[in-house]
Amino acid sequence: MVTAIVHINAEVDRIPEVAAQIAEIDGVSEVYSITGDYDLLAMVRVAAYEQIAEVVPGRLNKVPGVLQTETHIAFRAYSKHDLDAAFSIGLHEAD
């Protein structure tokens, strides 16, 4: 599982609609409205690195109202939640 954290700037008057559209994209697991330099944060979880290109520049950046994105790729998970999720995915694949 590959995880990317995408910071998003959106048109201010369209933030809720932009967030809702991004949340519907396959590969996007969560979307948060946040404080700071960006308006939204999207968690992208895909099986392979190549799929990030399909999700972020291929679909997410094309959502009307998205002005700018900054993508960070995670290379290791330390939280118990993510480790448990990865372990359970492995179990289901073996079934």
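The record above closes out task 2.4. Task 2.5 opens with a second protein, given below.
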Amino acid sequence: MGRNTTITMGTDAMGTERLRLLQLASPALPVGGFSYSEGLEVLIQGGRLRGADDLEAWLRAELWRGLLPLEAAALRPLAEALDRWRQQPDPAAEDAVRDLDDWLLLQREAAELRAQQRQMGRSLLQLLAGLGWPLPGGGLDLAWPAAWAWAGLCGGLTPLARVEGYLSSWLANQLSAAVRLLPLGPSEAQRLQWQLAPLLAERAEALLAADPHDLWSGGIGAGLAQLGHGGLYSRLFRS
């Protein structure tokens, strides 16, 4: 009886974690991610990305050498500092969170992207506070990666699940934007997401063990695209 009970409880906990991960990674999460293209709109309007093959190559490049890996690698130290902060008032832990949060924001060249990170982080923290998980001190001023780390911590997600979910959420939002900008179609977008799943898993494993300060970004094209978004004559997205 005792052994069966233990197995059942473990299975229930794993099932809850998976469901919470699906909820956090869903494009339906009310944080406004659907309204940002992160430079895709510029690249597509300029003819740099013309179809599924171009888009796949771009997404792969971003997963390897964009700013996204730095943010994903930062989730573990962010969660560790947040965990210390929630257990007891600890100025050192709070400073560690805010220093890394600020450093990640500074990696984003475009003001639109920094505004996106702040807005999505604030929206997620507001959602979590409404679910009974307010940030220590009740603040709502952390950007998206730190807010995601807090969400994963509150949801009981493993460190690897936090990184996998963060990458998967980014990919889903990029594909959602691409469907509205390219003659792509939802079926082709789903094919791309399915095809990129092994790379997401590979990158998550590697980034979980990485120090974000030891990584570098080669996303110059993405940075230029994001900086140029404000100058578009017509815009569908906010970045």
